[in-house]
Design brief:
Blueprint lengths: L5 H23 L4 H22 L4 H26 L15 H4 L2 H4 L9 H13 L8 H20 L6 H8 L1 H14 L11 H8 L19 E7 L10 E2 L2 E2 L2 H6 L3 E8 L6 H11 L9 H4 L8 H6 L3 E7 L8 H8 L3 E3 L9 E2 L2 E2 L1 H19 L1 E8 L25 H25 L6 E7 L11 H11 L5 H5 E7 L7 E3 L3 E2 L3 H8 L20 E3 L9 E3 L2 E4 L8 E4 L5 E2 L3 H21 L6
Parallel strand pairs: 1-9, 1-10, 4-12, 4-13, 5-6, 5-9
Antiparallel strand pairs: 2-3, 4-11, 7-8, 10-11, 14-15, 15-16, 16-17, 17-18
Length: about 600
């Protein structure tokens, strides 16, 4: 049948090598033959060799099935990294039920060339028809042994290296090895710090501040005794605030509020793989999210010190509203952990005017307002947590929900859809504020409005979108605009139109709110009162490579899968050279993150 029995196997493994090489080139822009041949390829080849040795019959079916699975993995990783700017990990495989967050934009992510990952399937089919049955090859077991030895060496080597950034780690140590190391770390509990402790004084010193006890802050108790409304707006980025398109304000209702609000215009998102649910976790605990794993997926059910619990001690009742399945992002675990008295999801909120994942924000807010009189009678003082989500990617709304008359060049574009969805969300925020004023509650409340994470990012942005963004902004879209979300705090006679450009993070929202309400925290938090402290240091995870940070003067993006490290001036976004201060900030940010993980550990599954 074959003059050389090894020849068909050589051809099969060569096709696999070509596919692995294409994967590394596309995902990591890595062209090192050494890394491909001796780090990345051996693991994938070992799995194929093991499958061929295990199955004595239908070897072509084994080859074809394995190749299909590898192609599917590479295809999925490509789309994921294109959207999230990081590679998916072992942890992400445990959240397949949440895949609709990417699935809704899948067509926007696909490039025709991505299907070349499946080209070898056709080649294998042709070779099967030409060569017939694969012969037995005694030397295959020796090849498998050699591959196993190489794979073992590279994996053990990787295990002994820390994972600061998963994409960079996978580039240096192999994608398959990076997954094995994460599983090993989780199994041996080495993925989280367990002994790092920081006093409040030391924590503020790392950020560049002198610690001041909470009850001595200038704003402490400014809103004491008021109701609290936290409004989390899906995908709202800071760059839309105060901007207009063709003479129309994108956020007219929020803009109108700014004259009687404290507006923080330099607040960075800090979410990890859990996206919107991470934002809920961060703003209700004052702690960072896990990063590589969605925090909600790992919660062990133990009650965590939270905003709802802190306010309960002050006589508040609490309720949270999210118009989706309660199991989405494990909110059936999250909300009890956070201590909400009442939880409302799609089971209670009317399933009408559905857009995207569920009822519209208008339905959500109408329902929350309908529950409010009863809650006021029951509790006296209330904390309402409202999670809006109509402005979720892909941002396509029915015509009756579109308030903007966009210029022709915006029609049908990703940016155009985004602006329409944010304008809709702003309208609902305006209705909430108007109703609170009509009921006489606005002067008795602290209302906090903030974005959960960016909406404009990744490859859904076509070239025309980049052009539209530059025209809309008056300059190229920057990393800072990509990562900052608005934070507006308002209420009758509280503020006098103050814009604060000092650096903040979502982790600072809870400490700032507690200080305004005159409540001293009874548990450590990573964030601080934004009114009190001028300096800040934020460790960045997931959407920026590990080791990145945002600091009051600098924004540092650590080396990633494809790009080298980049240091930017926080104000101008111009490139700067690394210096001793940069190295100090990297160390300090990592120390803060380790402390965060120490605080987080008791609430994460063992």
């Amino acid at each position: 049948m074959f003059k050389n029995k090894a020849f068909p196997y050589i051809a099969i493994f060569f096709l696999l090598l070509a596919k692995v090489s294409a994967f590394r080139l596309l995902i990591f822009d890595a062209k090192s033959f050494w890394h491909i041949a001796f780090v990345e390829f051996p693991v994938w080849a070992l799995l194929l060799a093991a499958a061929l040795l295990m199955f004595k019959k239908r070897k072509w079916l084994v080859v074809w099935t394995y190749s299909l699975l590898v192609s599917g993995v590479f295809f999925a990783v490509t789309l994921y990294s294109r959207y999230y700017s990081t590679i998916p990990s072992y942890y992400d495989l445990r959240q397949t039920t949440q895949s609709s967050t990417v699935g809704t934009t899948i067509l926007l992510l696909i490039h025709p060339l991505d299907f070349l990952f499946f080209l070898d399937l056709a080649a294998l089919w042709v070779l099967r028809r030409k060569w017939g049955k694969l012969p037995k090859l005694g030397s295959l077991k020796y090849a498998a042994a050699a591959l196993a030895a190489v794979s073992m060496i590279t994996t053990v080597y990787a295990i002994n290296k820390p994972i600061v950034d998963i994409s960079y780690f996978a580039k240096e140590n192999g994608y398959a090895q990076s997954q094995l190391v994460q599983m090993y770390n989780e199994a041996t509990e080495t993925a989280h710090a367990s002994s790092t402790e920081l006093t409040p004084k030391k924590l503020e010193a790392l950020k560049g501040n002198i610690y001041v006890p909470e009850n001595e802050h200038e704003t402490f108790g400014l809103a004491k005794g008021r109701h609290l409304f936290m409004v989390q707006v899906e995908s709202m980025q800071n760059f839309v605030i105060g901007k207009s398109v063709d003479g129309q304000e994108v956020t007219p209702n929020i803009n109108a509020l700014l004259g009687e609000s404290a507006y923080f215009s330099n607040v960075f998102q800090q979410i990890g793989a859990g996206t919107t649910s991470d934002a809920e976790w961060i703003t209700n605990t004052g702690l960072y999210a896990e990063g590589m794993a969605p925090t909600v997926n790992d919660l062990n059910g133990k009650p965590v010190p939270s905003l709802a619990r802190a306010l309960k001690e002050e006589g508040y009742g609490s309720a949270t509203y999210h118009a989706d399945e309660i199991t989405f992002w494990n909110r059936d675990v999250l909300y009890p952990v956070l201590g909400f008295d009442e939880t409302f999801s799609i089971e209670e909120i009317p399933e009408i005017e559905e857009v995207g994942f569920g009822p519209s924000d208008e339905v959500l807010i109408d329902f929350a307002l309908g529950e409010l009189p009863r809650q006021l009678d029951t509790y006296g003082k209330v904390y309402e947590n409202i999670v809006m989500m109509t402005s979720h990617t892909p941002f396509v709304l029915p015509e009756e929900m579109q308030y903007l008359k966009l210029p022709e060049e915006y029609e049908g574009t990703h940016v155009g859809h985004y602006l329409q969805s944010i304008r809709y969300a702003d309208e609902q925020v305006g209705k909430l504020i108007a109703e609170l004023k009509a009921q006489g509650l606005y002067d008795k409340s602290l209302v906090v409005i903030f974005g959960d994470h960016s909406g404009i990012h990744g490859s859904p942005l076509a070239e025309e979108d980049a052009v539209l963004l530059e025209d809309f902004l008056g300059h190229p879209y920057s990393m800072k605009e990509r990562l900052t979300v608005p934070l507006v705090m308002t209420g009758g006679d509280l503020f006098e139109g103050t814009e604060m450009s000092r650096l903040g993070g979502q982790v600072d929202i809870m400490p700032t709110v507690l200080a305004l309400l005159g409540v001293e925290p009874d548990a450590p938090m990573i964030g601080h009162n934004l009114f009190q402290y001028k300096k800040n240091l934020l460790g960045m995870r997931y959407y920026m490579p590990g080791g990145s940070f945002a600091q009051s003067e600098q924004l540092y993006k650590a080396p990633g899968a494809k790009l080298p490290g980049l240091l930017l001036d926080m104000e101008t976004m111009e490139k700067r050279g690394k210096n001793s201060a940069t190295k100090k900030h990297i160390r300090n940010a990592q120390e803060i993150l380790k402390y965060n993980d120490t605080l987080l550990k008791p609430y994460i599954s063992e």
